[in-house]
Amino acid sequence: MTERPAQRTPNRQLAALIAEAGFSNAGLARRVDQLGLEHGLDLRYDKTSVTRWLRGQQPRGTTPALIAEVFTRRLGRRLSAQDLGLDACAPVYAGLEFAASPEEAVDIVGGLWRKDSGSHAELRKIAFTPAGLVVPSRDWLIGRADDKVARGEQSPRVPAQGRPVVPRQRVQGERGPGQKVTPGDIAALRSVGELFRTLDNMYGGGHARQALVRYLEHECEPMLRGTYGEQTGRRLFAAAADLTRLAGWTSYDIAAHGLAQRYFVQSLRLAQAAGDRAYGSYVLVTMSRQAVYLGHGREAVQLARVAQQGVGTNAPPVVQALLHAVEARGHGVLGEVRSCTASLVRAERALEAARAGDEVPYWARFFDEAQLADEFGHAHRDLQQFRAAAQHAERSLQLRAPAFARSRLFCRVVLATARLGLGELDQACQLGAEAAGQAAEMRSVRAIEYVRDFERRLEPYKDAAPVRGYRDKVAALS
């Protein structure tokens, strides 16, 4: 990898941090190379490379951001390339920062929205990094709601040369930065969230994801840069957190996992600005679900436990049930039978304690008996307890409303897998074919992956008549 010509000034900031971290030059180079591998980069740095950086040479490409992340992990605080005396670049970690202030949070998430709504396809190819979960979840847990989020009237911005900036011409009706945010604006954000949630549940995240991101860029960001008092500001940040989590959820559904991870982190920060601790726990639950899907069981369990710790024991029983069920899924991926079972029991008891008159946050109302049975079915499948998995999956399908089409598809595949595990090949193939037909109607990579996972499990029976029939049915769909 080529380097810029050497500078004359030694990099004392980098030298001080190397000493604080206790790295040798070779040790730092090795860690940068290892981190590069997480992102599909084949780097070949060594102790000589670090010596050149200390003498003032600037590494190119994404390397400054990688070096900064190495120190962030070692020292437990967020460090940027500039903190290391290195030039800024297009960082691979952009969007994983847990902002120091609401203003910085708006800058970070606004940059993500703009890049995502444009032609930056590489943003959707960024890798998921388990290590990127540690600092944001910790900062959320120990952080407090921001003292102030209100924004007052803005005067025209004047550049250094003293000439006022002429604002661009806006289309009539288009919101501009600085405008006052009204209760109607926030109600509109909430309505849009419900609309996109419905579309996602029915047709998959790929159906309207780009429209949601463009809405965030063109409508939500100008509101965040508008004028509002404390109460309105908290409600605005809460609505923005919800829409940003949904942007992450739909990105996750199309397998843009690194981008989804960044949206979740920023949603977590916006929830903190809103002063909504409970919603922050829901964002962590979402992050835990993504970790489960990607096979990172240990991180999934840790995120669920941070959520439990952060929300405390005063949360409504439905919320407690959700938090315990998500922890169980992490234990299931790890094959930890006893811990998984204990978490499922806690979830079941919490849901049984719920009463009709309980005040339940809007985002937790989906968690009912159908959803709990779904969680049980998935967990027992992961533990290869197929009879229990089949019983719970069947119950979930009986109870689940048709509007949750994608969730029903996932549960049908779980049931097919359980039937296969019980040696019921005919039923398994029939259920699998139904799921494949539904997946073909959706824009959801996760739905396709569920079906492919089932097909991989069919391989040992590929010559059996039911499996040949299954393949014929699936072939007819394409």
UniProtKB/TrEMBL annotation:
Region: Disordered, residue numbers: 151-182
Superkingdom field: Bacteria
Name of the protein this chain belongs to: Regulatory protein
Natural source organism: Streptomyces pseudovenezuelae
